[in-house]
Amino acid sequence: MAMIDREQAWNILCEFTKSEGLRKHALAVETCVVAYAKRFGEGVEQWQVTALLHDFDWEIHPTLEGHPQLGEPMLAERGVDEETRRAILSHASHTGVARTSPLEKTLYACDELAGFITAISYVKPHRSVFEVDVASVKKKMKDKAFRALGKPAGHRRWRRRTGRAARRAHRFLRKGNAGAGRRSWGLRAACKSEWRCRDRLTKGLIL
Ligand SMILES: [Fe+2]
Ligand SMILES: [Fe+2]
């Protein structure tokens, strides 16, 4: 099956995704994935199409029962090739589709990486991604407090279990949260994304 091009992928995304945030997420993941496609010497356009479409059906199937498996036949109808559709299925662990190809691994890692970078931008003075540099992303990845607080079980329960180190981390978050609600959201999102991001990077890809 012939592959669709980036413009067609963008049109499919916009047909089913009205939220600006979700469109931006697709663009952010696309940007990260393209960087890796170039680095690995892979076909840029297919990777772009995959990244743009990986969450195309989230607004119409906003649960794990629907996304992305109910979107997959819709993409097939619109001429999206099998390799791309398989990669999209594999970004959601609950589909049971194993991530084996470089595209599948990269999509999985970049889905979180993009979120992590966006979250870091929210705690910058102008909330702009242009204020985020590689050094600050790497620093946040090593930041124990961020790392500790990213535990997906929810920091309160986790804090009880892990004692003093976690309490210190919790204080850090509270201090960081002293500002506006948005800032607090950014920190929390960064914590969560960071943990998942590291998890994905170690499983799939070396940054
Ligand atoms: Fe998704
Ligand atoms: Fe996503």
Layout of helices and strands, plus pairs?
Elements: H1 6-16, H2 20-40, H3 44-53, H4 71-77, H5 82-90, H6 102-122, H7 134-142, H8 144-149, H9 155-162, H10 164-176, H11 181-204
Helix pairs in contact: 1-3, 2-3, 2-6, 3-5, 5-6, 6-11, 9-10
The structure holds fe (ii) ion (FE2) (2 copies).
Residues 54-55, 67-68, 91-92 line the site of one fe (ii) ion.
Describe this structure in words.
The chain is an all-alpha fold and 207 residues long. The protein folds into 2 domains: 1-97, Cyclin A, domain 1; 99-207, no CATH class. It is 67% helix and 0% strand. It contains 11 helices and no strands. It has helices at 6-16, 20-40, 44-53, 71-77, 82-90, 102-122, 134-142, 144-149, 155-162, 164-176, 181-204. Helix 1 packs parallel to helix 3 (44-53). The longest helix is centred in the last third of the chain and has 24 residues, at 181-204. 37% of the residues are buried. The model is unreliable at 148-183 and 202-207 (pLDDT under 50). The structure holds fe (ii) ion (2 copies). Residues 54-55, 67-68, 91-92 line the site of one fe (ii) ion.
Strand-pairing-aware structural class:
mainly alpha
Classify the beta-strand content into a percent band: under 5%
Low-confidence stretches: 148-183, 202-207
Count of separate DSSP helical elements: 11
Approximate helicity band: 55-70%
User: What can be said about the biggest beta sheet?
Assistant: none
The hetero compounds bound to this protein are: fe (ii) ion
